[in-house]
Write the structure tokens for this entry.
Amino acid sequence: MEGPRPPLENEFPNVVKFLDSQLRSNEGWSITSEYPVAISEANRNNIRIITESDEVLAHAVIRPMIIKAPAGLFKVAGLGSVVTSSEHRNQGLSSKTIESCLEAAQAHGCDFAILWTNIYDFYRKFGFELAGSELSCLLDRDLDLAAFSSANDGELKFVDGNKVAPEAIYRLYAQHTVTSLRSVDETRKYLQIPNSRVYTAWNSRGVLKAYAIEGKGADLNSYVHEWGGGVSALLPLFSHIRKTQGRSITVIIPQHAQNLRRAFESQRIAINQGYLGMIKILNFQNLFAKIKRHSRHLGIQDFVLDTQMVPDANGVPVRKFFIGSRNQVFITNSEHDIVRLLFGPAKASQIHNFGPESKVIEKVLPINMWVWGWDSI
Ligand SMILES: CC(C)(COP(=O)(O)OP(=O)(O)OC[C@H]1O[C@@H](n2cnc3c(N)ncnc32)[C@H](O)[C@@H]1OP(=O)(O)O)[C@@H](O)C(=O)NCCC(=O)NCCS
């Protein structure tokens, strides 16, 4: 057996064949069309495979992203397409490809890694924890749109289909407070992903006011997982999608999308609180330094967030975390609690009794974080 290692150039087609047979055997398209950047020749060095006599047995990939958020610029590794061929499972192969991917992410200087899965305990073994916020808003009936018509825009015109200039989508996308940096060219590729239904709303002057995307490849059927634009155009657009499709749709939004959240609440739309994904911190020092800088921007000078390796009773070094303010510092060795404190969705006071310090901590944490599409739109 060989690996984990990146595939050689001439092995790449075999890797795609392996993934298609394991993960997309019924779809009629290749997984490369769903993950055009992650599973591509250009990202080959971030792919890890294990092989035996030219046959691929296991695979995992990371895609480093830059996320711009109010708390700063974060380098984040999206981890995905983790799979071992059915005849070779339970021999530790995926554990090896995952560990190797995480080492690569660390070498890239990533602050944290994130993934989406339903096998939580499997990933907890590698230090991942469910964290961050995602709100699911179920549109199961007509919206009252009277309050959302904008006098400036006249009647909105809706267009269904992906023949939209990526530049126009990009312009609205860039207005989000938390974005993953994407090029216009990546946006163009993402608009072509199979089963991604693209809907746009235009004003009477032909200006794009909102866009929304439902479905993506084999996943997210009936979920609007990406959107952009102002609430006054988005609500009519969501309503249009629901009517066109003749079924309920769920719009997923970040916790910090407060205007949209309030608009849904005023329509009595059911909102479910979920997790952004499973997160593992890769570089504590870097990440903590960014968050402390952010706390100073917020006017909080004495926020404490640090980590050190400290010998335990047997002299074995263990990682300790320090959090609080100049008045009182709390110590924990739970990496899981730190991830939850940093990214939410729980507030500090729901995780631990920090007494009066919880006020200081909650001014800074959790930070606003969101990933618009792991290699998709
Ligand atoms: C999940 C998967 C990647 C594990 O690969 P693997 O090479 O067998 O993994 P490893 O041998 O390194 O680890 C096996 C361990 O994972 C556990 N595991 C496997 N599938 C699991 C599941 N669905 N839920 C929880 N634990 C699971 C095994 O019980 C075993 O635990 P142990 O080490 O305590 O005995 C493999 O089963 C697979 O390819 N599944 C189909 C694709 C998939 O679901 N990928 C994950 C998408 S996020």
About this structure: The mean pLDDT is 94. The chain has three domains: 2-115, 135-277, 283-364. The domain at 2-115 is CATH 3.40.630.30 (Aminopeptidase).
